Amino acid sequence: MNKYSDIINRTFIICFFLLCFSISAFAQDNHTSVAHVGLIYPVSTNGKNAGLYTNAFSLHAIAGLSKAETGVAISGVSLLIKDSAKGVQVSGVTNVILNSAQGVQVAGVTNVIRHDAQGVQIAGFLNVSETSGAAQIAGFSNITHKSANGIQVSGFLNKAGNVNSQIAGFMNIAKNVKGIQLAGLINVADSSDYPIGFLNFVKNGEKSISLTIDETSTLLASFRSGGRVLYGILGIGYNLKSDNKSLYGLEAGLGAHIPVSGKFRINTEITNLTLSDFKRGDYFKNSLRIQPAFKLTPQLEIFGGPSLNYVNYAKGKGDGLMDHYLWKKVKGEDFQGLYLGFNAGVHFIL
After folding, report:
1. What's the pLDDT tens digit per position in 202-251?
2. Burial of 27: CB neighbours in 10 Å, binned 0-12, 13-18, 19+
């Protein structure tokens, strides 16, 4: 039986390749092929003329070359498509499309599309195109030279002209952003109302230097930057109250402007403050702030309001900073507490 099975399998394989060859040969006049199967150019059913063919299905062990793809194309390493692609293209390393693409492109490393990419591009490292459609998802970076009509998601950097939304592990760069810009650190844009990052350089947004003090007598100098609605906070400071210890402060957070009238608005903020003397044990405070603010001049704003604070610290680093708690828990050298406080200061708008 094994002998007959081997004969049948070999016959099937031979027939399959003859079928592919016959389909290719039958379609030579108009350079279209139902199926293109090969190892690496020019070892394939379309041979040395593979770059002239439009294929409905392609399967290559190493690399494939074609004029266009209209269905599914799969390659172990790479695909080079000299014109356009529709449907699904999947490669172990890279997809290169020298015109436009519609559908889905998946590459282990890089998708490179010279012109328009309508659909979804997924790459382990990098997506590059002139414009993009529904989504670009990359492990490292998405770069669109003109508009990105959907969302860009990357582990490090997104760059586009006009874009709907961007999410990056480190940095987003765009001109006009319709939705959100979410970055681990930096957002850059001409127009972006909803940037979510600690540093936001928005041309039509707002940047300010702030001096603040809270109920623990922690004095902070902070940089606030963002769009017309959302902004980020980064600050450094020093606690004036702690006895026999020098506690230095580092603050980070996010805020939102709620306009009320021309000169009056409410700033709501979520922040984290760390106080440390760079020895064992630190003090952490997470705060929700509601801060009415009034502009004395276009560049000068005063503000102040209540805060709800959760603190946890060890090694006595927060002893004496607050006496009255809504709730507290002590376990060994660790302390947790919840209390009401305040925050007040002045913004110097740049």
Report:
1. 999 999 999 999 999 999 999 999 999 999 999 999 999 876 678 899 99
2. middle
Owner of token pair 């909803």: 194
pTM: 0.84
Enter the DSSP assignment of 262: S
List of residues 6+ apart from 132 with CB closer than 8 A: 117, 121, 142, 144, 147, 148, 149, 150, 152, 160
- The DSSP secondary structure of 59-70, one letter per residue, reads EESSEEEESEEE
Contact, 204 vs 190, CB < 8 A? yes
Which of 220-224, 242-246, 252-256, 334-338 shows the lowest mean pLDDT across its residues? Answer: 242-246
CB-based contacts of 268, cutoff 8 Å, min separation 6: 255, 256, 258, 288, 289, 290, 291
Residue 62: what pLDDT? 96
Spell out the domain ranges in the chain: 1-85, 100-204, 206-349
Closest listed residue to residue 253, CA positions, set 299, 294, 284, 296: 284
- Pairwise CA distance, residues 268 & 307, whole Å: 10
At residue 321, the 3 state secondary structure works out as: coil
What letter represents residue 214's amino acid?
D
For residue 268, CA distances in Å to 261, 286, 341, 350 come to: 16, 14, 14, 20
Q: Which fold has domain 206-349?
A: Porin (2.40.160)
Provide the pLDDT for residue 243. Answer: 67
Q: Which two tokens stand for residue 154?
A: 């990357």
CA distance 152 to 59: 29
